[in-house]
Amino acid sequence: MTKKNPKHIAIIMDGNGRWAKNNNKTRLEGHNTGVKVVKKIIQKSLDLKINSLTLYTFSKDNWNRPRKEIDGLMKLFSKTIKKEFNNLNENGIRISFVGDFSGFSRTMLDLISYASSKTSGNTSLKLNIALGYSSREEIIYATKNIANKVVNKQLDINDIDNEIFSQNLYDSNSSNPDLLIRTGGESRISDFMLWQIAYSEIFFSKKYWPDFTEDDFLAAIDDYKTRERRYGKISEQIK
Questions:
Q1: pLDDT > 90: what percent of the chain?
Q2: 1 is a domain residue
């Protein structure tokens, strides 16, 4: 078993809407409450000296939701980034965004660019925010990049391997998650980091995201520490 904390944790933050329904609140109130949990988990990640934290914030499929909810989410994203930027920057957090941003407004794109560039030198924690994200689309994106390089004689087709493919994903500098956490009681991946989580340990929590606490986060990490990560080998080889 591993006794070390995971270096990279990815989270599918699911259950805001169902939490809101159960508590007689609007879906946007559920998302607002979820933001408060995000702040706590980021702080706990800093305390534990986690290297990277990736949050599945808005999927490409989420564009299919009611317009009112989408507009509310866009305002919430913008408001949260502006409000929390100084605190994140002062704590040495590097903010990175991954996904297809083509559906976002110019104001949102400028905010993404500003937050990314201003924190690019920070080293305490890399915070990856997945927006407009689809893992299948990311894999297609990487495939097109590689095909273009082969056509333009920048890459030999026989040199294509796992490392080359990873270098052509949305974020070529990001490590693969050691631990993937999904809240909300669902046991599926939902088109999230399909390439990167090939060997990730997965922890499913029945709690909706607004009810997820620092203790729940620690419980997921403690569970991770009991896992034996063999990468195709047998226990005796690992030991």
A1: 92
A2: no
